[in-house]
Amino acid sequence: MIGITSYGGYIPRLRLSRMSIFQNMGWFAPAIIMVAQGERSFCNWDEDSLTMAVAASRDCLGGMNKSAVDAVYLCSTTLPFADRLNAGILKTALNLKDEIHAADFTSTARAGTTALINALSMVRSGDRKQVLVTAADKRLAKTAYFYEMWFGDGAASLLVGESDVIAEFLGSYTVTSDFVDHYRGSDSQYDYMWEERWVRDEGYSKIIPEAVTGLFNKLSISMHDVDKLVFPCFFKAEHGKIAKKLGATPEKVMDNLHEVCGETGTAHPLVMLVHALEDANPGERILVAGFGQGCDTLYFQVTEAVKEVPARQGIKGPLEKKKTIENYPKFLKFRDLLQTEMGIRAEAPTQTAMTVLWRKRDMLLGLVGGKCTECGTPQFPRMDICINPECRAIKAQEPYEFADVPAYIKSFTGDLLAVSVDPPAIYGMIQFDGGGRFMADFTDCELSDVRVGQRVAMSFRRRYTDKERGFSGYFWKAVPLPGDEAEAGVAEEIRFDGQVAIVTGAGAGLGRVYALELAKRGAKVVVNDLGGARDGSGEGSRSPADQVVEEIKALDGEAVANYDSVATAEGGQAIVDAAIKAFGRVDILINNAGVLRDKTLVKMEPENWEAVLDVHLKGAYNVTRSAFIKMRENRYGRIILTTSAAGLYGNFGQTNYSAAKMGLVGFMNTLRLEGEKHNIKVNTVAPAAGTRLTEDVLPPDLFEKLKVEFVAPLVLYLCSEQCEENGMIFNAGMGYFNRAAIVTGPGTVIGDGTQVPTLEDIHKHWDAINHLSGAQEFPNATAAFGPMLDAFSPKEKEAPAEAGAKLTVKGIFARLPDAFQADKAAGVDVVFQWDISGAEAGSWYITVKDGACEVTEGSHSGPTTTIKMADRDFVKLIAGELDAMSAFTTGKLKIEGDLMKSQLIEKLFRY
Ligand code: NAD
Predict the structure, then answer these.
(1) CA of 679 relative to ligand 1 center, distance in Å
(2) What HEC string does 886-905 produce?
(3) Crossing angle, helix 606-613 and helix 655-676, to 10 degrees?
(4) Can you tell me which atom of ligand 1 is nearest the CA of 661?
(5) Whole-angstrom Cα distance, residue 583 to residue 524?
(6) Phi/psi at 731 (nearest 5 deg)?
(7) Is the pTM of this model over 0.90?
(8) Exposed/middle/buried for residue 569 (C-beta within 10 Å: 0-12, 13-18, 19+)
(9) Measured between alpha carbons, how far is 388 from 381 in angstroms, rounded to an integer?
């Protein structure tokens, strides 16, 4: 049995609503309103017939044995090269073997069906075992022409062979006649169309039935033997009429995808066939016809194997994953039909060195890198020396295909300066699972949707066009996959490269693990430890700190030891000085040093009280103050304080320790306010771990389970740039993490605020005073006074904004100070003038200076940046319904003055 063994499809992501063509060009060609329904597919600016063919072929070959393919036919009338084997580029991009028969089928709209008949004949003759037939077209039409509406871009691919056949080939029939419904001269980019009525009546309506009837006669079948009739015809009424003339009932006629895609030229019979196969049941019989200077017809019967085809995109997949735009000029620009000034940078030479292209053909066209045969590390590009520092094997790389390896985004940028048809140019580092990374251009995405950690798929795209020499250069780009994050473990790695951390009491217990983990993730660490006894007594010892430094160095990390006590101001200063001397800065401080002197209060002599407060509370003050001064200079800092359940909740015999530990929470509450505007964040951790401090407190089995390593991840996260928290308390132990907070009950009012309530009044209202339901946290002491003042304030309390409440321009500016992100405003000194037009017209200016923000109604005399918008667009922008970049590029948002500073707005305000 011979026939189709696999299928694949590709429709570009972009759709243009046909109505937008009319809206832009209806003034000139009012008649196009008649066909302005639905949408058509169109290529991104870096796509063409060849890139679409690669995409459809990859879809078709998914899960198949590529090495068995021994012929590849590429069918299109819009191939990028008139004299260079385009199928040869396709073969290289797909990494098919060299001993392959490759051919271009072109110059007629039925080239796709002709190639398919040829492929089937080759397999039947036994000359070839597996032939890949791929058709793709991206046809241009003149502006405001019916054909601009009717055409679409797309590709389809079929694998033909003799085993695992999903649709058995039962026969074909062809008529050829030089019927010129349209033609494209070899020096023209547009089709010349003859009169439609004649094309319909003499062409489609006669030639297709002639070929179908010929097939019926040849195979002695009739329309009763056809379950699905597949034939393109963009004249809607004619499509139905021809089917009727052939005796096909409407349910047999496959949709020509006019409403959702448009006609994809050479590819269209195959696009429709793939669409039919996607839903086909075993036993179904499909008749396909391809029209163009005659007509090809082919007859298939679907087999049981159709159910075994591996999951693929086909035509249904890309039809669903679409992005519809109304921006007609963008459509023209993407098709290079609109001349725009691209700037001097665009004039950089683009000549392709054929020598390099030949030498590196598998890398450039096939995205083939290397894999070390000794250690298995993949790398891109392939080089003579293995990139693995542990291996470094020489000339041990074998070819390794990256195109289908899962990858994710490690970093990215949107570059408005780089030359791009669709600015900003988005590019970044992509990391392949299992190893290998490179800086890739991103495509088919909007900057606002791209995220670090997001999955990407590799896509073969046009990288540049050398118009002077008529050459298109291709390479692979990354397509971010919406909503697809890399799994845990391969997501963005949090690192501390270049940062300097001080960890006090790092010679043992929790501190040691913090220091080691920070160093493993790239931080340079000051390992401080006095090395004293558990209660802080004795002379101290250098060895705990020295040992941890040695451990870090053994891991190739950087660290210095410090032996000062945190308990004195001089000690605190000396610890910070050690960091500056060794590494020049301080980014992270973990106040961890601790001692215990447990006694009940009566037995607690002043020296035991003071010794504990000196290390924990005063110690944190001593080191933090010196470090804070340095962090403020750098406008960056992360500070950790170590509290304890004993302080947060109480523990018998630990009044000194509990007081010190809760004192640290008060210290944090205020320090976070002072650090906020300098981008210094301070948080507190209450660990639970088996260490010297807890060995005689915890039962042995629990001591074993409470491993110190379980606390470190939370502490390190709070030390990272990624951490946005400030002024929070977290419990951590054994892998259980939660937040603790000081909350305040809603309370009650007794009296009118002029008369002092009596003790009896208090007694009477005790439950109302005491309860915590509806308790809330306050960001600072002033805010905590709010409910008290409000309780006696005669003014109406402002109703909270209801979800979905209508936003007004005035309301937005009134609430803007609440949306201000003071921690993002370090060093910012700007005035943003907003001029809003429309029914809610008005002017406001926002002054951001010294970490504060002020909103004033009116116009500023010298704003840094002026932003002009219509009221409705402004509200949409704030509500998150309008993307700032697209508002700017579509002219809805106009910017005068310092354009770069305007980019701060998104950072400074989170509405
Ligand atoms: P640990 O005794 O193993 O480590 C504390 C380290 O601090 C010791 O190496 C010690 O030499 C050092 N140190 C003591 N006084 C110092 C000083 N004046 N200057 C410099 N270094 C000094 O104890 P751990 O359990 O790892 O404790 C770390 C922190 O966690 C402490 O603040 C402790 O109160 C807190 N904590 C621990 C637990 C727990 O379950 N282990 C619970 C709550 C709070």
Answers:
(1) 28
(2) HHHHCCCEEEEECHHHHCHH
(3) 30
(4) 34
(5) 7
(6) -90, 145
(7) no
(8) middle
(9) 14
User: How much is the mean pLDDT over the chain?
Assistant: 92
CA of 582 to the centre of ligand 1 (A): 24
Distances (CA, A) of 439 to 381, 424, 456: 11, 16, 13
Q: Distance (Å, rounded) from C-alpha 462 to C-alpha 8?
A: 21
For β-strands 192-193 and 101-105, DSSP reports them as: unpaired
The Cα-based distances of 438 to 321, 433, 493, 774 in angstroms read 27, 12, 17, 52
Report which ligand 1 atom has the smallest distance to the Cα of 596: 34
Give the confidence band of 805 by pLDDT, cuts at 50, 70, 90.
Answer: low
Between the CA of 595 and the centroid of ligand 1 the distance, in Å, is: 6
Across the chain, which distance is largest between two alpha carbons, in Å?
Answer: 112
Q: What is the 3-state secondary structure (H, E, C) of 402-416?
A: CCCCCEEEEEEEEEC
CA of 416 to the centre of ligand 1 (A): 51
Closest-CA residue to 59 (of 293, 434, 309, 369): 309
| Per-residue DSSP letter, 776 | B
- Tell me the per-residue pLDDT of 872-900, one tens digit each, with 9 for 90 and over: 888 888 887 777 777 776 678 888 878 77
Which protein residue has the closest C-alpha to ligand 1 atom 43? 644
Q: Which pLDDT band holds residue 490 (cuts at 50, 70, 90)? A: low
**CA distances in angstroms from 844 to 756, 811, 832, 866, listed in the order given:** 46, 12, 8, 10
531: Cβ–Cβ under 8 A, 6 or more apart, which residues? Answer: 507, 540, 541, 542, 543, 544, 545, 563
Q: Cα–Cα distance between 611 and 535 in angstroms, integer?
A: 8
Testing ligand 1's pocket by substitution, the residue of 541, 691, 705 carrying the most ligand atoms inside 8 A of its CB is 691
- Ligand 1 nearest atom to the CA of residue 616, by list position: 32
SS in 3 state form for 429-490?
EEEECCCCEEEEEECCCCHHHCCCCEEEEEEEEEEEEECCCCEEEEEEEEEEEEEEECCCCC
Question: What whole-number percentage of the chain has pLDDT above 70?
Answer: 97
Pairing of strands 524-528, 558-562: parallel
CA–CA gap between residue 143 and residue 329 (Å, rounded): 10
Q: Select from 108, 111, 141 the least CA-distant residue to 42.
A: 141
**Which residue of 528, 649, 693 sits with most ligand 1 atoms within 8 Å of its CB, as the best mutation to test the pocket?**
693
Question: CB count, 10 Å around CB of 183?
Answer: 13
Is residue 190 annotated as part of the catalytic site, yes or no? no
Matching residue, tokens 């299109």: 76
What pLDDT is stored for residue 487 in this prediction? 53
**Ligand 1 center to residue 689 CA distance, Å?**
11
Nearest atom in ligand 1 to the alpha carbon of residue 614 is 18
Name the nearest CA neighbour of 369 among 434, 428, 421.
434
Residue whose CA lies nearest to ligand 1 atom number 29: 592
Strands 437-441 and 454-466 turn out to be unpaired
Pocket of ligand 1 (CB under 6 A): 504-505, 507-511, 528-532, 536, 544, 565-567, 592-595, 615, 619, 642, 644, 686-689, 691-694
Task: Tell me which residue of 431, 436, 460 sits closest to 365, measured CA to CA.
Answer: 460
Q: Which of 7, 400, 563, 657 is catalytic?
A: 657
What is the spatial distance between Cα 862 and Cα 849, in angstroms, rounded to a whole number?
Answer: 15
Confidence of residue 536 (pLDDT cuts 50, 70, 90): confident
